[in-house]
């Protein structure tokens, strides 16, 4: 039996178990850096499957290594994130979240279940590939500084060192049975912006006696959001958005302080550093001209995610072999961010999308309170990852 048919056979064998795993995880979500029970559940499965694993990486992270033939010949890594979001679930489903106000609204339950299903398949086929595969169960993708960064700092890409890392993410814009790839730069860096404008507040009817911090804030919002348009180099996507403003005054009261939060994203690390300087300079200039001051705090987040051209081309080829060319889609750039980017800055990486929507139903957006997946997409997830991994290992 050829590899594709053998994997499809194993997909059917393990599908119900993978669905059960995903539903358990969905019912028991945990926030970033708090995935203690999730970690225990995963390790209980790995233990029952008689696999070697290591825990406590970045507190709740797990490493599992599966050896094939000639275990030291080469090493690749497969990664899944496992944290949830602070979202109240509104789905009416039997496996609805039991943790009020916490939900797997970004599909990390599916990512973890899919990686566990991939382990089951590859365990049965370990005589079919050369080398070893490292499985990474990562905490805290959703919260800075990100679990990937901490796991890397604690040696997850060492002993043994993988030459390539593969990750997948659910994608409701694609129907079940399809996957999407993009070579090169794929996702943006993400920085958090915090501003506190300080001045002399007072009666709104006497503007000559006060510093109008609210007016300064409004001017600052406009100026900041124009920075990408005015200063970004040509063909480098960038966006700056202010999403939170607190001016705790009243109809006739200008407050002493106005607080703002926003995000800055771009696709170029060099321009990113220059933009940080420009954000600070423009903010201070606008405030000082009107007799105010501003504290600017730029919290540097995830870097640009870059899919290695050569490795991703191979992954695309293998996915097409497994799913058919018509089911492997070219993706566009995304201004969203992912801490998988940290891995992509260290070793060749491929981060791809897994279609999860049922074409007969409306698909709800990621991070929404009624996000869910078509669970048949898990068949595509475990089959594709297993097939691509074995083909890559034997290439």
Give your account of this protein's structure.
This protein is 35% helix and 25% strand. The strands form four sheets. It has an eight-stranded mixed β-sheet, sandwiched between helices. It has helices at 3-27, 36-48, 108-124, 147-153, 213-225, 227-231, 269-289, 309-323, 341-344, 377-393, and strands spanning 52-57, 61-67, 75-81, 132-138, 165-175, 179-181, 184-187, 191-198, 202-203, 238-246, 253-254, 257-266, 293-299, 305-307, 328-330, 349-357. It has two domains: 3-187 and 303-393, 3-Layer(aba) Sandwich (Aminopeptidase), CATH 3.40.630; 191-299, Alpha-Beta Plaits. With 395 residues, it is α/β, with parallel strands linked by helices. The mean pLDDT is 96.
Draw up the topology in text.
Layout: H1 3-27, H2 36-48, E1 52-57, E2 61-67, E3 75-81, H3 108-124, E4 132-138, H4 147-153, E5 165-175, E6 179-181, E7 184-187, E8 191-198, E9 202-203, H5 213-225, H6 227-231, E10 238-246, E11 253-254, E12 257-266, H7 269-289, E13 293-299, E14 305-307, H8 309-323, E15 328-330, H9 341-344, E16 349-357, H10 377-393
Parallel strand pairs: 3-4, 3-5, 5-16, 6-15
Antiparallel strand pairs: 1-2, 2-4, 6-16, 7-14, 8-12, 8-13, 9-11, 10-12
Helix pairs in contact: 1-3, 1-10, 3-10, 5-7, 8-10
